[in-house]
Amino acid sequence: MLQVMQLSLGRRGDYAVRATLALAREPRGTRLKAREIAHEMDIPEKYLPQVLATLVRAGLVGSVAGPDGGYFLLRVTAEVTLREVIEAADGPIRSDTCVLRGSPCRGDGMFCVLHDHWVAAQQALIDRLEKTTFADLRRTDESIVGLAAGPDRAVEEDAGAAG
Hints:
Elements: H1 11-24, H2 34-41, H3 48-57, E1 61-64, E2 70-73, H4 82-90, H5 115-131, H6 134-162
Antiparallel strand pairs: 1-2
Helix pairs in contact: 1-2, 1-3, 1-4
């Protein structure tokens, strides 16, 4: 049986990315209620406030209490990186643990055969996540949503907007 190496977001990171994307879809300054984000992004409504509080503490998301309140991005989407959101929710991406069990990696300069290559691969991932902004993700999301709507629906939406 073929085993697949796990390289994935934690649950908090997943929800944080989805919640941030929901906010990035909106015009700047628009506030969304937690329940709206939860519904739109299929996030458990009871868990989402914890995730949003993490993003607020990280200075990525703002919140306003009250009937007209909600959550909003504090910066433009082109300035919010995927790395920031993931690390706010899941902690640092870089691992100091050796990938080979029982290997000689230690803090005294002794490293395993994979060490330098693994560190380079981690850095490449970090660099990519740092370069990916929520403006990039919003554009990708818009193209995916447009494809999912199908050509007939897109034409209907355009005709409805014109009339």
